[in-house]
Amino acid sequence: MFSIIKNRIKQGYKTSKYPLKEIMLPEKYRGLPSINKDCEKNTIITCAINCPTQAINASEQSLDLGRCVFCGLCEEISDGTFIKFTRNYKTGASDRRQLTLYSDDLKDLEISTNKYFKKLFGRSLQIRQVSAGGCNACEADLNVLNTPFFDISRFGIQFVASPRHADAIMVTGPITRNMKNALIRTFEATPDPKIVIASGTCSISGGIFRGSSEQLNGLDSILKADLYIPGCPPHPLTVLHSLLKYLGIIKS
Amino acid sequence: MDKNFIKIKNGENIKVNQIPYMEFDLFYENVLQLALNGYSIIHYFAYNDNFQTRLIAVFRKQNFLYIATTDAPDEYQNLTEKSIKFHNYERELAEEFAIKTINHPWLKSLRYHSNFLGKTDVFGNDYSNEIPGNYEFYSITGEEIHEVGVGPVHAGIIEPGHFRFNCIGEKILHLEIQLGYQHRGIEKQILQLKKSALPILIESVAGDTSIANSLCFSEAIESLANVEVNEEYEKIRGIALELERIANHVGDLGALSGDIAFLTAAAYYGRIRGEFLNILLEVCGNRFGKGFIRPGGSKFLININQRRLFLNKLKKLKKEIIEIADMLFNNAGVLSRFESTGIIETDIANDLGLVGPVARASNLFYDVRYDLPTGIYRNISIKVATEKNCDVMARALVRYKEILHSLDIIETLLNNLEGTKPNKNINYSLSPNSLVVSVQEAWRGELSHCIITDPDGNILRYKIKDPSFNNWIGLAIAMRNEEISDFPLCNKSFNLSYCGHDL
């Protein structure tokens, strides 16, 4: 008992002030990429050819965040002249098309708040997470949102044990063939109205697994997502920011 | 006994034609003798070479690997009945290459996919049907017997798998574990990918083991490409691997506390785990070390400033970890749940071929860093952490000891860094007709990658064996005669990988 109290006093209060106070991620962190369209053509083509997930379109000088695994190979190949990963962790978007980035003017991706959902879930969102082929990095970093630093429940957001209790399902992984039916059944068991969230690059496009015959290249092949959170895995802050913005807790 | 096998070191590359070939009957007898006489199986798999299916067996005894090969028959009398270590490997042979093992005591689908060769399915499955297909789960009948099915979608944020408990009252008679839900077809996909995508896929075999997988891959590639690695990179790799181990072990101690509702330790360890992931983030830009290690070295180094910062941080964290452990391991409530729960006796653990902290908690002395060291581990002394009580408590204590040891290793390595430039992508070509086995002590235990190349130096077969492949059966055995309410606790004390197993 004594040591519990002693530890409690020593540990103190660890929860971050976010979103009142911005959190600065380390310099090396690879967040939202900025694109320089004036880069030399050959460099762009080399980047596109080498990109492990074919996220780069050389002719349009664009990068699809929904396919990007944030490995940093293009930044390395182009020595930062074509693509540079910034420390901006706000990579979530509510429209799949928005994830295709074109020019270098960095702006936050838009997450449109559905007024109806905001009213319904703005103070309380219960999420059922479904892993469908995720490598457990996405899952592990979603668990982190429950630790004292992020403490997601202070926003009324909770991960729940049953789809029957949920307002949203959050899917990770490229959707393996063997998980397809379980995922659909979980979706069906979630009462309407409900939100579908694709968390992590795999669930948006299949990620690095795209093309493998044992998976379905992401969630869009079977369900329509309302919110896309790219990353490999997305930083917990990325997920938190996307959710808070979707619910209108953070304003634009 | 091992005279018919070639004896090599971890990460040593050999030509395929150097591997001793035996007629199948002789191979069968030799492989069985090794398995029964204290050699542990690292690999037992098939591959296709010029329309001929071959079998490869890789064993370990002490500091060496022993390899032999044969032509695979369409079917053969199973080895599992004689040595239980083979049970999953023989299921895998049936599933991947349609090699039927006659009278296998429990031949069932491991990952639920059609075989690599397009042959008639051994299990009679039509894979457009849902998992587990043409298979009846094991069931026990009798008065007051009931079944509890859990998953594939679980209550927490975890990977999918199906658990089926046969119980009498609260007591579990048998737990059947059905995996395969995470099967992404990695071994097939590897053969189709371009070079630049390969490390990314390897890091996604199991995201919580990104660093160990990427290290296994890199050392295998370096061996096949004859690339020397600078000692500075070896140190960085050691630091990375130990950080991954600490982060996961600390997380496990927190999760174990959470499962018995000792929430103070769960909250503290949960947060501290993040501190270690943040160190990785600061070094390489990813909390799981994705993009950190590549063939030839490492993409990132640790500079003087970071070194000082990390040393201070680690010192503080070590103190906190010890204080919390004192609180945790001296609490009567905790001990009453941890002790004597989920016991796996030493000889059973040995028979099953368990590895990693789980095996060491059952007093088996084996740690790849000690027994088959590569890289920086050849230069540092490793204390292998073992416990004698074989229960949840032992598994927690082994993790705790390993955390402290890893912290010391990191401190030593940090102090010895010299500070050179990070390397760019190296261009490598693999030597043709070769084989390499690379083994690492991942945080869950023995992780091994085996690569075989064809006459053009392309990858012909890439076999991955995650420690979970060995250990899932251990969880099932640990649950026998335990109460069903102790399942989450036991499960967490193993904390096995679904995706690493399912590939």
Helix and strand composition category of chain B: alpha+beta
Q: Could you say which overall geometry of chain B the principal axes of the C-alpha atoms support?
A: globular
Mean pLDDT of chain A comes to 90
Total domain count of chain B: 2
Spans of at least 5 consecutive residues with low confidence of chain A? none
Contiguous helical run count of chain A: 8
Helical fraction of chain A equals: 25-40%
In the CATH hierarchy, the third-tier topology of the domain at 115-246 in chain A is known as: Rossmann fold
Shape of chain A: globular
Main sheet summary of chain A: 5 strands, parallel
Q: Could you say what the CATH architecture of the largest domain in chain B is? A: Orthogonal Bundle
Task: Please characterize this protein's 3D structure.
Chain A is built from eight helices and ten strands. Helix content of chain A is 26%, strand content 14%. With 503 residues, chain B is an alpha+beta fold. In chain B, helix 6 (231-259) packs antiparallel against helix 15 (487-494), helix 7 (263-284) packs antiparallel against helix 8 and helix 8 (304-329) runs antiparallel to helix 13 (392-415). Chain B is globular. The two termini of chain B are 33 Å apart. The mean pLDDT of chain B is 93. The chains are: A alpha/beta (252), B alpha+beta (503). The interface between A and B is large, with 70 and 70 residues.
